[in-house]
Write a sequence for this structure.
C-alpha cells in the first residue's frame, strides 16, 4: 500500500470508480469505502480533488477521463434516460449521480471536455435485449485485454469509447448464444474506405467470444497476403501470446516447431500478453485453426480441432454450464472456393454439435466476392443459382443454425442489391450500422470542397481542400507526372525532416506513391519503364533537380504546410531541407528499382513483390497499377496519388478512394494529381475529380438518410433494414431487387421534412414537358416583386466575413403552391410523390402551413443573365448540368441561398419574435421556397441561346426549386417516413412477385 498522498488519492479514486462498474454512483460514499482500505486518514475533500486536476495530475486526469468518457458515450442508459450521448446534458447527469460540487465539475470539464463526436447510426428491426452492461462487465476478459492494447497503441479515451459503443451495437443484435432456440441474425456494418473497420470487427469478435460465441470465422480477403494481415492483427491484439504458444517455452527452440511469430516477427513483444493461459485465469482459451502462414487445412486436423468438450455432457453446448468453460475456435480464411469447400466438407462430417454451437461469421469487404452476381434470368425455374463464394457462405449458414453473419464494407450499395427476400443470402435483415467518420481520417471531405460557400476566387490553401491537396491534370498543364514524382521525393524529405525534429517517426516508416493510368497490364509495364527512366534522369543530386524541388517547395509545399500544419516543424528554406532530399532519394531508389508494378491478383504474384507492409521495415516505392490491388489491401504511407484512368462503373471508381485513410503527421503533404479532362471513346471526355465527387455524394446521401430515419419513435424503428432498399431507390433508382420477377414489397409513400430541405432533382429532359411545367409555375412567378431584397449570412465556420446576395421575393398561399406542385411532371413517375403526400397534408390535416416565402436569387452582376418567363419580371437564369450517366441534376440550390433560407426557418422556430436576419418576417407557419429558372448548359453561350428579346424559351427552362417547410409542420407522432406493403397478405416479406397485370406487355 502506498503512503504518498498523491498515490493514495489515485488508489482511492481508482478503487471507487472501479466499484461503480457501468453506472456513476455517489462518489463521496464510494471513495470513503475505498479509503478505509487504502488510507483511512486521507483528505477526500473536493477541494483537494480540484487542486490535483488544476495542477495537472496526469494519472488522476487519465483515470477520470476513461470513466467520464465511457459514461458520456453510453447509449440509452437506464440511469440517464432523457439524455443523448456525448452532450453537456449527459455529462451533467453523470455529475448529478456522482453528486459532485460545481467547482469540481468545472475542473473536470476543463480537464476532460465532452467529446461531441457523432455516434454510429443504427437501422434495426426490433430485437430481444440480452447483452446488458452488467452481463458484459461480468464477462469481459478478451474485450478488456483488447481495450488495454488499444490504449497502449495510443488510442484516445473517446476513440475507445466510440469503438466500445459501436461494437456493442453489433453484439447486442446478435442472438443470445445461451438461448435454447436457434436463431440467426444478419447485419451489415458500413465504414469508410481504409478507415479502420478491422478494429471494429476485432472488438465485435472480442465481445462475442466473452458472451459465449465459440466459433469465429473471419472471411479475410481474396489473397493470402490480406488473410495473413488480418490473422496477424487478430493474433497480436486479441488472441495473444499465451494462446499462440499453447504452453510452448519461448526459449526452447524445439518446442516452437510450428509456432509462428516467435523469432521472425520483430513485433512479437508487442503481442497481447494475458499473464497466463486464460483458462487458468478464470476465462477460456482460444485455439487457432489458422495461422499467419497457413489457411484452413482439411480433414483430420480440422475435425479434431472442431471437437468441443462439455463440462455437463447431458446439457447442450450452448447451456451456460458448458459454453463459458469451453475453448473457442477462431479461423481467418480466404474467400477462396477450395479453402471454403474444405471447411464446409469438414463441418458436414461433424454431427450433433453444430446445432448447439454459437458461431459468428465476420465477412470483411462483404461486397467483394460474397454477393451473388449471377443474373437471375439464368436461374433455373424454382431455384436460385449462386456464385461460388456466395453459395459456400450460404452453406455455412445452413450447417451452423446458431451462426450469425455480419458483413463489413465501405461501399454499401452492393449489399443493398442483395435480394432481401432470399432468406439464404446475406441481406442484412436484422441491422445496418453506419460507423461515424473516425477522428484523424482523411476522406472525401478532405479532398473536395463539398457545400463550400466560399467563392472560387476567394479560396486559399487554408480554406479550400481542393486547393490544398488536389492538382488537376488538363491539356494545358501537360501530364504533370514529373511534378508528381518531385512531390513524392519532396514529401519524403519533409517526413525525414520532421522525424529528425521530434515528430514520432512511426507513421513515416512507409512512404508510397500510387500511379494509375490504365487497366491494361502492357500499359503498366510501359509506364513503369517510363517512370524508371524519368527517375534516373530527374537529377535529384544535380543543381537542375534541386532547383526544380526548390521551386515546388516555394510555390506549393511551403505554402500548404504554413496554412495547414503550422504546429509541425518546417524548414525555413529549401536549403535546410536539401540534406533530407538526398536520404529520401536513397530510400526510394534502394535496390536500384524505385518502381514496383502491381497488376496481378494471385498469391504467387504478391509473394514475389515483397510488399508486406507488416514485415518489411521500410517500403519507399512508386507503385504502378491499381485495379488488381485487391480490396482491403492498404497502401501504407500513401502520400502522392496520380490518377488518370477513366471508368464508367461506380464501384470501380470507388477504388480511387485509395488516397483516403489516416495520415498522422503528414496530412498537409498529401497530394492528388487527377485527370480533369480525360478522353474516352471517340468524342467523350471525363472529369475524374467531379465523377468521384458525384459517387461520394450518393454515399453521403445514403448515410444522411440512415441517420435521419434511425431515430426511434415511441420505441419503434421508423425504418427497418428491409425498407432501406426502397428508401435508397427513391434517390438512386438503379437499386432494384435482383430477381426481375420480384419487386420490393415495401413502398415508400410519405417523407416528412419539417424544417429540412426538400430538393428534387429528376426533372424532365423532354422539351415539351419542360414547357408544360414552366407554364404551370406562371401564377407563382407573378407573385414575385420586381424590387430585389438583400439577404445576409453572418460570419461562420466557412467564412470569417458576412456574405450577401440579392433576390426577388414574394408570398403565395400554401394552397396555391401545392396546386402547382401537384401538376408537375417528372423524369421518373412518382419521384416527388412521397414528398407531395406530406405537403398536401399541411392544410391542417397533419399540420398547418399558411403561406410560403418565395426567393428567386440573383447572380452577381458580372455573371447575371436575366430574362422574363411567360411575362414575369426578369429573373436570373441559372446554369446547371445533370450528373454523368443520370437523369438527375446535382445540387440545385447554392449553399449561400440554402443557408439564408434555413436561417429564416430556424429563427421562426427557435427565436420567434426576434428581428429577422434579412428584414423579412417569416412566421411559425410559413415555409420558404427557393426558385431557380435553370438552363441545362455547360457554357454561358448556351444560356444566352435560351433567351430572345429579353424572354426565355419556356421549353428550355427547368423550373427547379428547394422547399423548406416550417419546423412546426409535423404532428405529435413525430414519424418522418411512412411505408405500406404492396402485398398486404405478406406484410413481413421483403419482396413479392410482380403482378402480371402491372408488367409491360
Amino acid at each position: 500500500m502506498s503512503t504518498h498522498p498523491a498515490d493514495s488519492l489515485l488508489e482511492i479514486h481508482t478503487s471507487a470508480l472501479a466499484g461503480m462498474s457501468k453506472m456513476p454512483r455517489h462518489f463521496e460514499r464510494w471513495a470513503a469505502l475505498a479509503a478505509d482500505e487504502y488510507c483511512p486518514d486521507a483528505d477526500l475533500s473536493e477541494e483537494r480533488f480540484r487542486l490535483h486536476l488544476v495542477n495537472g495530475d496526469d494519472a488522476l486526469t487519465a483515470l477520470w477521463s476513461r470513466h467520464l468518457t465511457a459514461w458520456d458515450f453510453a447509449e440509452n442508459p437506464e440511469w440517464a434516460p432523457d439524455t443523448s450521448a456525448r452532450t453537456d446534458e449527459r455529462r451533467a447527469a453523470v455529475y448529478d449521480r456522482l453528486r459532485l460540487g460545481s467547482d469540481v465539475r468545472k475542473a473536470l470539464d476543463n480537464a476532460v471536455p465532452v467529446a461531441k463526436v457523432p455516434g454510429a447510426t443504427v437501422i434495426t428491426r426490433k430485437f430481444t435485449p440480452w447483452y446488458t452492461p452488467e452481463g458484459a462487465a461480468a464477462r469481459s476478459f478478451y474485450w478488456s485485454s483488447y481495450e488495454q492494447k488499444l490504449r497502449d497503441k495510443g488510442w484516445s479515451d473517446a476513440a475507445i469509447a466510440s469503438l466500445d459503443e459501436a461494437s456493442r451495437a453489433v453484439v447486442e443484435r446478435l442472438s443470445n448464444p445461451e438461448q435454447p432456440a436457434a436463431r440467426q441474425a444478419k447485419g451489415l456494418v458500413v465504414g469508410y474506405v481504409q478507415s479502420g473497420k478491422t478494429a471494429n470487427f476485432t472488438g465485435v469478435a472480442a465481445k462475442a467470444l466473452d458472451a459465449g460465441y465459440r466459433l469465429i470465422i473471419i472471411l479475410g480477403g481474396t489473397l493470402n497476403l490480406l488473410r495473413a494481415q488480418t490473422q496477424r492483427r487478430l493474433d497480436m491484439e486479441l488472441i495473444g501470446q499465451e494462446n499462440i504458444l499453447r504452453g510452448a517455452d519461448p526459449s526452447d527452440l524445439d518446442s516452437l516447431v510450428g509456432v509462428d511469430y516467435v523469432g521472425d516477427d520483430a513485433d512479437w513483444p508487442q503481442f497481447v500478453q494475458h499473464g497466463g493461459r486464460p483458462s487458468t485465469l478464470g476465462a477460456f482459451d482460444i485455439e487457432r485453426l489458422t495461422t499467419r502462414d497457413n489457411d484452413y487445412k482439411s480433414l483430420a486436423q480440422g475435425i479434431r480441432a472442431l471437437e468441443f468438450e462439455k463440462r455437463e455432457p447431458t446439457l447442450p453446448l450452448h447451456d451456460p454450464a458448458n459454453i463459458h468453460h469451453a475453448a473457442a475456435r477462431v479461423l481467418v480464411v480466404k474467400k477462396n472456393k477450395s479453402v471454403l469447400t474444405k471447411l464446409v466438407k469438414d463441418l458436414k462430417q461433424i454431427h450433433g454439435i453444430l446445432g448447439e454451437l454459437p458461431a459468428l461469421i465476420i465477412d470483411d469487404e462483404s461486397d467483394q466476392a460474397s454477393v451473388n452476381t449471377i443474373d437471375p434470368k439464368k436461374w433455373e425455374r424454382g431455384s436460385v443459382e449462386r456464385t461460388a463464394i456466395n453459395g459456400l457462405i450460404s452453406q455455412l449458414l445452413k450447417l451452423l443454425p446458431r451462426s450469425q453473419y455480419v458483413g463489413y464494407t465501405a461501399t454499401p450499395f452492393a449489399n443493398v442489391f442483395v435480394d432481401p427476400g432470399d432468406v439464404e443470402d446475406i441481406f442484412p435483415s436484422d441491422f445496418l450500422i453506419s460507423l461515424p467518420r473516425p477522428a484523424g481520417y482523411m476522406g472525401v471531405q478532405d479532398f473536395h470542397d463539398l457545400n463550400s460557400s466560399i467563392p472560387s476566387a476567394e479560396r486559399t490553401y487554408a480554406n479550400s481542400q481542393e486547393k490544398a491537396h488536389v492538382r488537376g491534370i488538363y491539356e494545358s498543364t501537360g501530364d504533370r507526372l514529373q511534378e508528381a514524382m518531385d512531390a513524392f521525393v519532396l514529401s519524403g524529405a519533409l517526413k525525414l525532416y520532421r522525424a529528425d525534429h521530434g515528430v514520432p517517426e512511426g507513421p513515416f516508416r512507409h512512404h508510397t506513391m500510387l500511379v494509375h493510368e490504365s487497366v491494361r497490364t502492357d500499359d503498366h509495364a510501359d509506364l513503369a519503364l517510363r517512370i524508371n527512366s524519368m527517375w534516373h534522369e530527374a537529377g535529384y543530386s544535380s543543381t537542375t533537380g534541386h532547383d526544380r524541388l526548390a521551386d515546388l517547395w516555394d510555390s506549393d509545399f511551403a505554402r500548404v504546410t504554413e496554412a495547414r500544419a503550422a504546429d509541425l516543424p518546417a524548414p525555413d528554406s529549401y536549403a535546410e531541407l536539401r540534406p533530407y532530399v538526398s536520404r529520401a532519394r536513397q530510400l526510394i531508389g534502394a535496390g536500384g528499382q524505385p518502381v514496383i508494378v502491381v497488376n496481378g491478383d494471385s498469391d504467387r504474384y504478391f509473394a514475389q513483390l515483397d510488399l508486406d507492409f507488416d514485415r518489411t521495415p521500410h517500403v519507399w516505392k512508386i507503385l504502378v497499377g491499381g485495379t488488381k490491388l485487391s480490396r482491403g489491401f492498404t497502401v501504407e504511407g500513401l502520400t502522392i496519388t496520380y490518377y488518370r484512368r477513366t471508368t464508367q462503373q461506380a464501384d470501380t471508381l470507388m477504388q480511387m478512394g485509395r488516397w483516403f485513410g489516416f495520415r498522422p503527421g503528414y496530412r498537409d503533404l498529401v497530394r492528388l494529381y487527377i485527370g480533369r479532362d480525360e478522353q474516352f471513346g471517340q468524342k467523350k471526355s471525363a472529369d475524374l475529380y467531379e465523377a468521384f465527387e458525384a459517387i461520394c455524394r450518393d454515399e453521403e446521401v445514403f448515410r444522411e438518410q440512415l441517420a435521419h430515419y434511425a431515430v426511434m419513435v415511441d420505441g419503434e424503428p421508423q425504418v427497418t433494414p428491409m425498407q432501406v432498399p426502397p428508401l435508397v431507390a427513391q434517390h438512386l433508382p438503379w437499386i432494384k431487387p435482383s430477381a426481375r420477377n420480384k419487386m420490393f414489397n415495401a413502398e415508400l409513400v410519405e417523407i416528412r421534412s419539417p424544417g429540412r430541405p426538400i430538393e428534387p432533382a429528376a426533372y424532365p429532359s423532354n422539351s415539351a414537358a419542360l414547357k408544360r411545367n414552366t407554364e404551370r409555375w406562371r401564377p407563382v412567378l407573378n407573385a414575385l416583386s420586381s424590387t430585389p431584397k438583400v439577404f445576409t449570412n453572418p460570419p461562420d465556420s466557412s467564412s470569417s466575413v458576412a456574405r450577401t446576395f440579392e433576390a426577388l421575393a414574394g408570398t403565395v398561399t400554401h394552397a396555391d403552391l401545392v396546386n402547382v406542385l401537384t401538376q408537375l411532371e417528372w423524369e421518373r413517375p412518382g419521384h416527388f410523390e412521397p414528398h407531395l403526400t406530406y405537403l398536401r397534408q399541411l392544410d391542417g390535416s397533419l399540420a398547418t402551413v399558411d403561406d410560403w416565402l418565395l426567393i428567386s436569387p440573383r447572380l452577381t452582376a458580372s455573371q447575371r443573365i436575366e430574362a422574363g418567363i411567360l411575362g414575369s419580371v426578369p429573373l436570373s437564369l441559372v446554369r446547371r448540368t445533370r450528373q454523368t450517366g443520370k437523369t438527375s441534376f446535382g445540387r440545385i440550390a447554392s449553399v449561400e441561398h440554402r443557408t439564408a433560407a434555413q436561417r429564416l426557418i430556424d429563427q421562426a422556430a427557435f427565436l420567434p419574435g426576434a428581428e429577422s436576419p434579412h428584414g423579412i418576417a417569416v412566421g411559425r407557419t410559413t415555409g420558404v421556397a427557393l426558385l431557380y429558372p435553370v438552363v441545362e448548359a455547360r457554357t454561358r453561350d448556351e444560356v444566352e441561346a435560351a433567351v430572345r428579346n429579353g424572354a426565355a424559351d419556356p421549353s428550355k427552362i427547368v423550373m427547379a426549386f428547394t422547399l423548406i417547410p416550417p419546423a412546426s409542420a409535423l404532428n405529435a407522432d413525430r414519424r418522418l417516413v411512412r411505408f405500406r406493403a404492396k402485398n398486404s397478405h405478406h406484410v413481413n416479406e421483403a419482396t413479392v412477385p410482380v403482378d402480371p397485370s402491372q408488367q409491360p406487355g
About this structure: The mean pLDDT is 86. Residues 88 and 614 are 41 Å apart (CA to CA).
